[in-house]
Structure formats: structure tokens, C-alpha cells
Amino acid sequence: MLSYHISQSNSYIIRTEPTASNSFTMSLQDMMSQYNYTASLSGVTYNGYESMLGFTASISGSIIGGEYRAVIYNGATDIWHGSVQVYKSSSLSIPSSDYQNQNTQYISHTSENKYVILD
């Protein structure tokens, strides 16, 4: 599943079926209304050695909580199947490495990275 954030840059790198062409389109189907959409892809890169496709997607008319079935086509051949879920814009005011835990019983302490080597 890909996470799509409204009004943010939505860049992805995914593994696909091997392909030789560089013409990619993403087709979407709304899981509630069954309407079909096409996402506009920009900055498309494809690594043929590892079958990795990189792109930035834009879904016009998407709403928060929307879910889509997604298929990426290379011409008429489908090379990836998945889903896309739409979220509100993410604006964290804290670094992503800072977090809080509900478990206060155990606390990690800074170690000195000393190791005992047994012969």
C-alpha cells in the first residue's frame, strides 16, 4: 500500500515486473464509488537491473480517507498492482527520530559500547 498525503510531494520507489519500455501510467479505481482515475506521474525513473520504478504521483480530486486500487501500466502491460490510501498532510514539528513510548517501566540508558571478548 502506498500512502498519499494531500498537498505534499508524494515520491515513491517501488519494485515492478521487468519491462523494457519507459512509458508508464497509473490507473486508479476508488474502492467506494468504483470510479476510475488516472494519476499523473512526473520525474519517472526506471532501473532495469533491479526493476525499480521511481516517480512522483499526483491524484487530482483525492479526499482524506480515500482508498484506491492501483495498477501501473507500461503501455498495455500491467507491471504493478497495489493500493493507495489518502492521508491529511503530515507536518511533524519534532524530528522523526524523537518519539514517546507508553511503557515507562523500562528505560534505555546510554551505553559506553564496551564489549567483553571471550577466548
Give a structural overview:
The chain is mostly beta strands and 119 residues long. The chain has one domain: Sandwich (Immunoglobulin-like), CATH 2.60.40.10. 0% of the residues lie in helices and 45% in strands. It contains no helices and seven strands. It has strands at residues 2-5, 11-15, 24-30, 36-47, 52-58, 67-74, 77-87. A seven-stranded mixed β-sheet has the order 1-7-6-3-4-5-2, with no helix packed on it. Strand 3 and strand 4 form a beta hairpin. 13% of the residues are buried.
Task: Itemize the secondary structure elements and their pairings.
Layout lengths: L1 E4 L5 E5 L8 E7 L5 E12 L4 E7 L8 E8 L2 E11 L32
Parallel strand pairs: 1-7
Antiparallel strand pairs: 2-5, 3-4, 3-6, 4-5, 6-7
Going by CATH, the homologous superfamily would be Immunoglobulins
Order of helices and strands: EEEEEEE
Give the count of helical stretches.
0
The quaternary organization reads as single chain
What is the straight-line distance between the termini?
49 Å
Number of domains: 1
How confident is the prediction overall: mean pLDDT?
82
Report the β-strand fraction as a percent range: over 45%
CATH top level assignment: Mainly Beta
Helix content: under 10%
Largest sheet: 7 strands, mixed
* Structural class by secondary-structure content: mainly beta
